[in-house]
Amino acid sequence: MTVELIKASANDADVLFAARVSTQGEQTLESARAADADTLKRDKGLINYLMRDRHGSPFEHTSLTFYVQAPIFVFREFMRHRIASYNEESGRYRELRPVFYVPGPERKLIQVGKPGHYEFQDGTAEQTALVQQETMAVTRSAYEAYQRMLEAGVAREVARIVLPLNIYSSMYVTMNARALMNFLSLRTQREGTHFPSFPQREIEMVAEQMETYWAELMPLTYESFNANGRVAP
What we know:
- This protein is an alpha+beta fold.
- The chain contains nine helices and six strands.
- It has helices spanning 12-24, 27-32, 37-52, 72-78, 125-151, 156-159, 177-187, 201-217, 219-227, and strands spanning 2-9, 63-71, 85-88, 110-114, 117-121, 168-175.
- The protein has a four-stranded antiparallel sheet with strand order 1-2-6-3. Strands 4-5 form a two-stranded antiparallel sheet.
- Strand 4 and strand 5 form a beta hairpin.
- Helix 1 (12-24) packs across helix 3 (37-52) and helix 8 crosses helix 9 (219-227).
- The longest helix is centred in the middle third of the chain and has 27 residues, at 125-151.
């Protein structure tokens, strides 16, 4: 899974500006420029208050745009989050490249437990080999069928229907920090969260990379997000 941060207008000051305008008006920017220790303490306290008591709108005055390359089945889970803007490459207008996802030996294969409360365990060497062999066989067969239809003059939007969900696609996704926190709370598994989540590992790999970029941009917000159980405000 590949994630790149393309552009961002996101820092802790954006949250502080928005939160304080209701009480300070035009003084908001002036007060935010202060950089002494007392101000930093107040800033951390305010962000923690907003996070803890779920006053979420100040976190929306931010924007992060990511470029993501991942299998289509990951994108279909990603786009369940309707609090972001998406633009994905189209198989109607370009020939899709033969790049496919095949689980590696580190991918846990056995699900143990009931729905909503389960864990994954390592598969046997035989199971791992079976998954890889069958995935590659089906993938090759599907892409060869796709190529045959294109060579026969069949439209790309028709030929693509035989391609499996493990083919890679790419997209730009833009969201604000509040939406990103909601995404991370649902698509990462962490100890100590208030509402445990059980994401598919492949989308969690995307989420982890997005989280790394965001943590560097908004350290106070990120610290408070974790301290308050990784719940979006």
